[in-house]
Design brief:
The chain has 297 residues and is α+β, with helices and mostly antiparallel strands. It contains 6 helices and 14 strands. A 5-stranded antiparallel β-sheet has the order 3-1-8-11-7. It has a 5-stranded mixed β-sheet with strand order 2-12-6-5-4, covered by helices on one side. It has a two-stranded antiparallel ribbon with strand order 9-10. A hairpin with a 5-residue loop joins strand 5 and strand 6. The longest helix is centred in the last third of the chain and has 20 residues. The protein is elongated and about 70 Å long. The structure holds a DNA duplex (14 and 14 nucleotides).
DNA sequence: GTCCATGTTCTTTA
DNA sequence: CTAAAGAACATGGA
């Protein structure tokens, strides 16, 4: 479910709730969502302060004291949300963290500012994941195995990486080791925006095509972040709000509907097991007609 | 009952 | 050997 824009939205909505909070309690309902299996999540977390939260690819990284880190991956159906501890937990809630903020109220009294301790605010951070493709990870390196960030990748960087593989561009862009953060929706939308057929061999993209694709990826992702992600099924941000980008998808899940550029019906095919949506007219397979003329030896 | 799903990883095949 | 395709994972909704 969640790709880069959704994960980014979750992180920005999570940040004000968890930054600087103290982990008072940990309830792990299922040990098998933790990697490595059997690592002592409760012991490692209780009493820690969460210094910050950030995103790398589709990973949500929590920074703790002494440089310690862990990350959450949401898989297909994972959700991270902030709740009142008194609210009943949804089914498939596998991890709950009780967090407290030692709040201070800052008031001005005459010329001076006075800080008074607030009643401590207690919230519960919950990880819920029916399909359990997601999980909690305590690796030595939270960035291991990830390619560059799509929002900052250069056309040169992308071209170099694509040149090394003959796979269709659709499969290559889904490979997190090649570029980190894209999923099925945003690959299809980006390829449409760049006018590139999803079956085009990665190593056969022309220079101008890679430049166009790089710009398209950034444009689509930034626009999606601005709309707070796509809610197709049950994606919600940390406050429980839906995204709005699904309303302006141009190709994803629009099979048979008219292309918004040229009006002909959009097609859906399967590439390496993933459903792929595109416009057969706006995304031509052959970009330049004949092969370069060959001189005789 | 069937098919499909926003993801990743392991296994099999070429 | 490597690269790429395919299967597997688990659950719910159409």
């Amino acid at each position: 479910m969640p790709e880069l824009p959704e994960v980014e939205t979750i992180v920005t909505t999570l940040r004000p709730h968890v930054t600087g909070s103290l982990v008072r309690d940990v309830f792990l309902a299922r040990a098998d969502i933790v990697t490595p299996y059997g690592c002592n999540v409760c012991g490692r977390l209780v009493g820690q302060t969460i210094l910050g939260v950030s995103r790398r690819g589709k990973r949500i990284i929590f920074m703790l004291e002494r440089g310690e880190k862990f990350y959450v991956h949401l898989g297909m159906s994972g959700r991270l949300g902030v709740f009142d501890p008194a609210d009943p937990a949804a089914p498939h809630t596998h991890l709950r963290l009780t967090l407290s903020h030692v709040g201070f109220a800052v008031r001005t009294r005459g010329k001076s500012t006075v800080r008074t301790a607030n009643p401590t605010e207690v919230i519960e951070l919950r990880f819920c994941d029916p399909r359990r493709f997601g999980g909690i990870f305590w690796p030595t390196d939270c960035e291991a195995g990830l390619g560059p960030e799509p929002l900052t990748i250069t056309p040169r960087q992308l071209a170099d990486r694509l040149a090394k593989t003959r796979r269709p561009i659709k499969s290559a862009l889904l490979d997190q080791r090649l570029i980190a953060g894209l999923g099925n929706i945003y690959v299809d939308e980006s390829l449409f925006a760049a006018g590139i057929h999803p079956l085009t061999r990665s190593d056969r993209l022309t220079g101008p095509q890679v430049v166009k694709l790089t710009a398209a990826i950034k444009r689509i992702l930034n626009r999606a972040i601005h709309h707070r992600g796509s809610t197709l099924r049950d994606y919600r941000d940390a406050d429980g709000n839906s995204g709005g980008f699904q309303k302006i998808h141009k190709v994803y899940a629009r099979e048979g509907q008219p292309c918004l550029k040229c009006g002909i019906p959009l097609k859906r095919i399967v590439i390496t097991g993933r459903s792929t949506h595109f416009c057969p007219k706006c995304q031509k397979r052959r970009q330049s007609g004949a092969a370069a003329p060959r001189t005789s030896p």
